[in-house]
Amino acid sequence: MAVSIFPPGSDFDNLVGAIARSAKLASHVIANTPTEVKNSVLLRASAALVGAQRDQVLRANAVDVGTAQQRGLSSAMLDRLTIDATRLTQMSEAIEAIVAHPDPVGTIKGERLLPNGLKIARMRAPLGLIAMVYESRPNVTSDAAALCLKSGNACVLRGGSEAVRSNQAICNVFAKALEAEGLPSAAVSMLPTIDREATLALIKLDGVVDLVIPRGGEALIRFVADNARVPVIRHYKGVCHVYVDGDADFDMALNIAINSKTQRPGVCNSMETLLVDRAAAEWFLPRVIKAMKEHNVEVRGDVATRDIVADVYPATPSDFDEEYLDLVLSIAVVDGMEGALSHIRVHGTKHTEAIVTKDKAKADRFIREVDASLVLHNASTRFNDGGELGLGAEIGISTTKIHAYGPMGLMELCTWKWIGYGQGQVRE
Amino acid sequence: MAVSIFPPGSDFDNLVGAIARSAKLASHVIANTPTEVKNSVLLRASAALVGAQRDQVLRANAVDVGTAQQRGLSSAMLDRLTIDATRLTQMSEAIEAIVAHPDPVGTIKGERLLPNGLKIARMRAPLGLIAMVYESRPNVTSDAAALCLKSGNACVLRGGSEAVRSNQAICNVFAKALEAEGLPSAAVSMLPTIDREATLALIKLDGVVDLVIPRGGEALIRFVADNARVPVIRHYKGVCHVYVDGDADFDMALNIAINSKTQRPGVCNSMETLLVDRAAAEWFLPRVIKAMKEHNVEVRGDVATRDIVADVYPATPSDFDEEYLDLVLSIAVVDGMEGALSHIRVHGTKHTEAIVTKDKAKADRFIREVDASLVLHNASTRFNDGGELGLGAEIGISTTKIHAYGPMGLMELCTWKWIGYGQGQVRE
């Protein structure tokens, strides 16, 4: 992580502690803020992004982009960093979509009368203070702030070094909106530095930070997971598989494979490895490889694949653990369901797995046995997405099985507490 | 943690890694074992504890108790350690109760048809491999093993040093029962040592251990939380409050306070601090303090309390953060609801909080605003218990807001994965 704006030896524990403790105090206020007021804050922020504070955000971003160019960032990275009018509109609209979503806080479920007359239920409650540690894209800042506020939480954000001015400008939009509604601006706080020591101090604040969500490359996520003293929900890489069974509809299989690989190759729910049942390999492999090549996909096959289609690159063992995030595909021939299940057990990343088959019993078994946040029958892996699954905006896709498994939206930023109404009940 | 049975310099990473990896492999088998077979394993274990393996368990326990006596353990500790015929029967019955509970695995919720025809839902799935790190009482071993197996998980257990032989004997009961049903005995594994280094190795096995649950004193829980690299669900101390509002039914308040404090003072859901509304203090404090003394409770009051009832010990500031687990009570006078809410915000431990009032609006506010795993109106704090709340046996009471908040039963040892059945859907 990059150059500090603080002198060496700065007391980050104190500095970060003070920021986080203010945010924690603000979290108690936000937790008990009515839906209408939270929505007003978000609508103010949404309007300011394309109105009153638009130029501040664009100017801050221009400085970030200029610095990044001097540092020689790749054009892909520069593109992710750049905010223009279109992207501001998208950010603004994303906040409006969160406004339109129902408030999860205070929802009641499982009401029940105990034999002793005590009425118990569960009530959805905010988590408290959420730390987000993420990289590059500044729109994550506004998405995360809006999701945390709507779900009754405060947040401390630590974005990427190259976007530090853009992120601060977006934070300022939320600060102003919070203040306009008489709420503490500390509810959306940003670390003033992306120092490694500051991040470390943040993720060790047990009792202050209730959850840390790291988003970004595997190294960042591991750094957080290895050093945090507070709960972490991880969003690791997705090495997603499509298994084409011998009993598949092969036109459907081809279509699903192409869509899973090529519709948007740079995201975590795209397919990285195609598993083909040995029973169908001779017939299906030439067709699917030809189609992949027509879509400019580089194909890397295991030995059995290359025995059938010679004209593909060899896949090394490490290929099957790689998240290419690119137009590259590895293919392995497997011995039916058992082979597919065991390949996924070894190489799967608990993200998204799909089977294509006409055999309902096989589909049911695959769906039940495969351990992934979304397991699909006869559909593209690209459906693992908060929007597609009806959650609305997501703060990430959890591959941790604890708390949330899959897309995390507003509801997953809450917990369920127990509540009970009695008439003087005591325990015998 | 106690003396090692392994020579210094033992390679615990390898040793513990091998045990945990075997258990992980077993977890894949248990995850897909039908309910009837899991129940048969549990019934075999239940029967063996009071039948064929009864004497082995009692003999192992006698050795543990003998060693503990030589080491000069307190009589309370010895009592918790000792297994007799009655306790074996209780352990056996607890397993039968788990058999009677429905299997959470494979339960479907939230079925929904997306506009594109994809049928999505969520399916309850086991977490995988659960590590339990706990102290003293050997019945935790059988409870944890039975809960993990029924919920489709495998477990690695690390109990207290003084119970190491008893725990191994109980593990052997489950190993035999698993083998009799053709299942891998590694599904219930025990660390062969309680070495600190072995525990450290266990809780750092990211990717192998899916969750660690520490149960015991605060030092043990902190040790695990500070060193784990896998998700931890904490079961910290309970400094539970009863707030007696000025608008309370004072007979009810007295009854609830006495029950919350004295019905079983040594457990985490008993009251440690009584908060009394200043508006009622003059009238209520003399009555409640008199009643507490009649129940042999040592009362420690803040200045305002002692101004009204002189004959109580002074409460120091640290009293209000202490989990006495004993017939000791601290009392603070607070300025109505605001005072109660802010006292609980500072001193609460997210465990159990109760308000006694006739004013429904105040009760609703207290229930909504207080951050605790169970918030009660007009009822004893002692109700925060898996059995009382209808979950059945519990593996602990989580004060982590992530994943589970409150008692953790079979359902909380699972996660929800997304599933989807399509007819060839791809993303546009």
Topology of helices and strands:
The structure is a homodimer of 428-residue chains.
Chain A: H1 12-31, H2 35-49, H3 54-70, H4 75-81, H5 85-100, E1 108-113, E2 119-126, E3 129-134, H6 139-150, E4 154-158, H7 164-180, E5 188-190, H8 196-203, E6 211-215, H9 218-227, E7 240-244, H10 250-262, E8 271-277, H11 278-294, E9 298-301, H12 303-308, E10 313-314, E11 328-334, H13 336-347, E12 352-356, H14 360-369, E13 374-379, E14 396-398, E15 406-408, E16 414-425
Parallel strand pairs in A: 3-4, 3-6, 4-5, 7-8, 7-12, 8-11, 9-10, 9-11, 12-13
Antiparallel strand pairs in A: 1-2, 2-16, 14-15
Helix pairs in contact in A: 1-8, 2-5, 2-7, 3-7, 5-6, 6-7, 10-11
Q: Would you write up a description of this structure?
A:
Two copies of one chain form a homodimer. Chain A has a seven-stranded parallel beta sheet with strand order 10-9-11-8-7-12-13, sandwiched between helices. The first copy, chain A, has a four-stranded parallel beta sheet with strand order 5-4-3-6, sandwiched between helices. A three-stranded antiparallel beta sheet of chain A has the order 1-2-16, with no helix packed on it. The mean pLDDT of chain A is about 95. Chain A is globular, with a radius of gyration of 24 Å. In chain A, about 40% of the residues lie in helices and about 20% in strands. Chain A has helices at about 10-30, 35-50, 55-70, 75-80, 85-100, 140-150, 165-180, 195-205, 220-225, 250-260, 280-295, 305-310, 335-345, 360-370, and strands spanning about 110-115, 120-125, 130-135, 155-160, 190, 210-215, 240-245, 270-275, 300, 315, 330-335, 350-355, 375-380, 395-400, 405-410, 415-425. The first copy, chain A, has 14 helices and 16 strands. Chain A has about 425 residues and is of the alpha/beta class. Chain A has two domains: about 10-235 and about 410-420, Aldehyde Dehydrogenase, Chain A, domain 1; about 240-390, 3-Layer(aba) Sandwich (Aldehyde Dehydrogenase, Chain A, domain 2), CATH 3.40.309. At the A-B interface, strand 2, helix 10, helix 14, strand 13 and strand 16 of A face strand 2, helix 10, helix 14, strand 13 and strand 16 of B.
